[in-house]
Amino acid sequence: MRIKRTLRMIALTLISVLLLNCAGCWDRREIDKLNVVMMLGVDRVVRDGKTRVLLSVLSLKLNSVVGSSGLGQGAGLVPSMGFVDTAEGETIDDACRNIALRSPRSLYLGHVQAIVIGEEMARDGIQQVIDFGDRSKDIRYRTEVVTCQGSALEALEAQPEFEMLSSTELVELIKQDPAHISKTVPADLLHVVSGLMTPGREVAMPRLHLFSPPERGSSVRKGPPSSSITLDQQGQQGQPGARGQNFNQTLGVSESEHPERKVFSVDGTAVFLGDRLVGWLNGEESEGAMFITRQARGGEVPFAFRSSQKNASYAFQRVSAGVKPVITRDGITLEVNIRGSGGLSENRDAAIDTMKASDIKAAEQYIDAEAEHYCQEAVARCQSLQSDIFGFGDLIHKSNPAYWKQIKDQWRDRFPTVKVRVTARFTIEQTGVTGQAVKSK
Amino acid sequence: MRTGTARLDNGRISSVQLLFIFLIFEASTAILYTPARVAALAGPDSWLAVSLGDGVYGLVVLLVAVTLGKRFPDQVFTGYLPEILGRIGGKLLAAAYALAFIHMGSVFVGEASVFINTHLLFLTPPTVLDTVLAMMAIYGAYLGIEAIARENEIVLPVWLLLIVFLLLLAAKDVDISHLKPVLENGLLPVLRAALFHSSWRGEVFFLLMLYPYLSQKQEALKAGLFYLGLVIVLAVVVHTVIVGVFGDLVTAHLLFPLETLAQYISLGRFVERLEIVVIVFLTAATIVKLAVIYHSAGIAAASTLGLKNYRSALIPIVLITVALSRVLYGTNLKLLSQLFYVWPIEALIVELAIPALILLIAVIRKKGGGPLADQENS
Amino acid sequence: MAVLHWLLNLFGRNKKNGPLKKTYQVEPEKEDRTLSKRLDDNKQVLAEIFDHCGDLVEREIRIGKQGPRALLVYFDALIHYQELEEGVTKPLQASQLPQSGVTLDWLMQEAIPNTRILIYDRWVDVAGEITKGLTALLIDGQDQALLLFAMENIHRPVMMPQTESVARGSLDAFNENGRINIALLRKRLHTTRLAVEKVDVGEVSKTKISIVYLKGYVYDGLVEEIKTRLQRIRIDGVIDSGQIEELIQDAPYSPVSGIGVSERPDRVVSALLQGKAALLFDGTPFSLIVPTTLATDMQSPEDYYNRYWFASFIRMVRWGSLLISILAPAFYVAITTFHQDLIPTPFLITILASRDGVPFPGMVEALIMVLAFEILQEAGIRLPKPFGQTIGVVGAILIGQIAVTAGLVTPAVVVAIALTAIASYTLSSLNLSTGVRILRLLFIVAAGFLGLFGVMAVFTMATFQLCALRSFGVPYLAPFAPLSLGDLKDTFIRAPIWAMRMRPRLQGYVEPVKQDDNKPRPPRPR
Questions:
Q1: Is the N end or the C end of chain C the one with fewer CB atoms within 10 Å?
Q2: What is the pTM of this model?
Q3: Within an 8 Å CB–CB cutoff, is residue C468 touching chain B?
Q4: DSSP tally for chain C: helices H, then strands E
Q5: Subunits close to B (at least 3 CB pairs below 8 A)
Q6: Which domains, from first to last, does chain A contain?
Q7: A218-258 pLDDT per residue, tens
């Protein structure tokens, strides 16, 4: 009896040890075996007449710090500003696997902060990219999506100016925009997915604008010191099958030989029709779009006060907008009502006498006209592109579902004919810390 | 008072514990799987759909269960079936119920493991997940209904608080316009969604398997009514917030909208990545729910086979559920087709139609002790 | 262990004990002789019984001038000589014999000023009392022996508590003397309700265990249950209350016993007032309190002495510490090896940088650190006091500095383990913290294999076990599961004293109301 029990105990122990043995190899991945991707860039390229995906990823990369590898100096590793890998593939995930061909660490998308879509890809259709992001369990709906004017690869290679990683910089740029600038329409993955799916609404997303920094060589805005951008030996060996274009390699040789290393700014908006890029809005038009879609929270409206030039500036802080579709026999009119408040932030030549109520009132009217102008421009541009990024159709759907059923199928054709009446009412509530402007003698 | 053999488990649960057990049924898997389907059927009217049918359907099941339970206050459902239907018929039906519970168990195991496999442990074989879940649940079932009820008293309040917390955090992103237009396509799609969703309310049927353990039997109805009220509030709030954040179209194309919602939460960019909370607590909730099912299945099997101890029936039951869930509900396609198309009908038959029929027969044949049994027991 | 037990049961362990099982049999004390009237006969028996007891003293005296011979028998080490001399020998020798000759009544009433005297006529009893330190007085011509109390009080003075220190509150502790232990309680509770029932446990050691409770406060059957459980114990000797604890706890395989341990009289008194019972021991300062729940395990006596705002805050900190000390290392392992998407991006970069080149996988790393910490802690306890500091310093340097710089472990894991260690020191219950230290390892392993899913599975299992655990009939997780909202006032928070008018529902539920409405009210302003 006792022997039997002992045997049973031994058997149980063995079974549990064996069970433990087969466990634990599946999802466990040590953190240092990951290639942590911060930003994805997707481009469309043509090879031998076939279109393929060119995927570039910006991932964290650790570099040894020179001269501090002794005891007591910590691990001697600091993350560098990132490292770009690229590979081509038939599909996006195929390209991911091709990247893994040359990287011993598995690609990890759990920290992707932004997806950059190249212009070619965008014109061809972004559905593929969005579906990839939507389907992946790692990529979040909070991930920012932007369209790059140019190739996404270039955008990923661009040099961050303030943050350590260009992905962080991009996300910060997009996040702060509605609060202070309102010159681009931010879109996270959820908004893009939703825009693609919802009838009567089109996708708009920030435009990434790449350019060579005009201040190169000046002390005003220098890139990071070259010591922190170290030569990556591994990357120098170009791998077959993957079109490696390691910028570090070229940078490491010499600063002067370096072909233009671009920087980016986020301004303007990419406008889509369906999943295809059809055009861009510039900054002012974007501001108008931000007003109409109620996304603007802060920004600037320069205006001309009794002058031919813009000689004053208005910083708005709180904006709200109401859009009401009015359906008559003649067609559809959308009444956009914008209310906002803010302060005077610039007053050239003391054109506005801030002590005079009439001047303030007049200034407010100029501001209103200017804002209305922005909105009208935005609407006009979108109507010319046939793309309803404001979601007017959706609005009609929600307020008048019966009517929407009739026009649903031809909404894209109807949208350019829609009349939009914008009325803005901005009030000046502050004039900064001064009252009267400085007057030169 | 007959004890032990009639009930097979000497535990006692209070009416609050009963209420909590019902709530965990909703808060474990239903909350995860229904929003997408309801949004697909009812669109922006999801909140209406989940509040409409549930009350009525749930109330009917509840009334049947309470009336039947009152007639046999000391026995579980499968225990008194022979008394009502005669020995052979009763035993057969009891066996069928034991099988139905096993089947439900396999669905629940599948629900949890598909979810975890999709969102958390990508590469771990689902069989391992199934086994771990089932082992934990069977341990609870082994300890008895009292331990399960107490465990649930820890899991459920924390989990509900977390849901409320998550929903509050998500509330910032709710766009009320996503809930419009109301009743765009008339009442019919909403009713279809309501019919689908209300099948989850039928789980109040498990009162029949828990009734003998209830210490204050007169409060069963009250607990059931509270449950219906609370669960409707919960479902409405959850569906509203999910549709409010995502819109009905996006919600409908997601597999686990609640999970994606938790993923989407971001407050000041440091309160984020909260989805793990959902996964972890859903795991706990599912284990508790499974434990109840296993307990009921064990009791049903034991009372059918005339075993003295339901615990010896547990191991085979677990093995069967794990194997079944692997074969039948191993992938989310198979699972969803079960949940969306088969389960409402199954629930209607198992949880409402047959008990109602049994009640009818019991009334006609004048079986069961009637309301007097209450005093005898308290 | 409970899990193992359950597994064993599942695999059909036969509950009937096999024939190999041995029953416990102590050499029965065959002594059934009674005392004889002749002193010499008695002397012979004495020599037989106390064979080999070299420290037995037999001193023959004569009562009065011409009185009968008498024999004082005692153990050398247990006797207070002066007391014996002043209280027994001298008065006996100097006494005037009455007319009726020496009778026991005369001895007890007039001759011996000793305060407490027992009379026995069976050798078993006499010998038993002598082993306890009493002095036997055998008189020629009497077949009964007088047992006199003239004991040496061998005990430490009442000292400060060693394990449960507080900043505010009484500073005395129980010690190894059962009489002093009871005295400490009697000095705090001047009532006839304070009942003390004594049970001897241990066939050889015959350790005296006092069951202490307040009559009318304990719920029905508690004391009987304790007595039955104690009397069921058949064992050679009881060295410490820990043994008794293991022998009377409800669930033999449970990692936590559901029995409170304390060396503080104030804690015991407050437990008694809550309607619990306490077991005081001869030979150990650690008393047992039953029933004990998780909530009471988490309380510190100081909670009731501090302001309630602060006490509530500290309570919550302590509950948080409980979770941290169980889960923190497991959580670390889970998020670094399974759920990297949970780590905020900037922190990820830091961990990534520090983990590069560390040879061990996260789970092994955490296990090594936890074990290293346990080794340090154990060494700290075993070391002679003066060296304690050294171990602290060496440990800190070894683990905190060198292991990290040598690249053996990451700084993050050091932080996690250090936090765990510190958090575990906030637990005031010794029993709980030992349970936690074991569970912690289990959680780390679970996290290493299945991530947070595994942690949650084990957590659910552990809570299942605790839910099923009872402490003398009271559910261990009492105010939470089963939930009773009113009793939560003394768990995560500590309500003001005047607000706690009702006793907890499941324990001490004899009189529901504990106190009058004592809420302080300022006098009306004049």
A1: C
A2: 0.86
A3: yes
A4: 18, 12
A5: A, C
A6: 30-217+227-281 (no CATH), 283-441 (3.30.300.210)
A7: 544 444 333 333 333 333 333 333 333 433 333 333 344 44
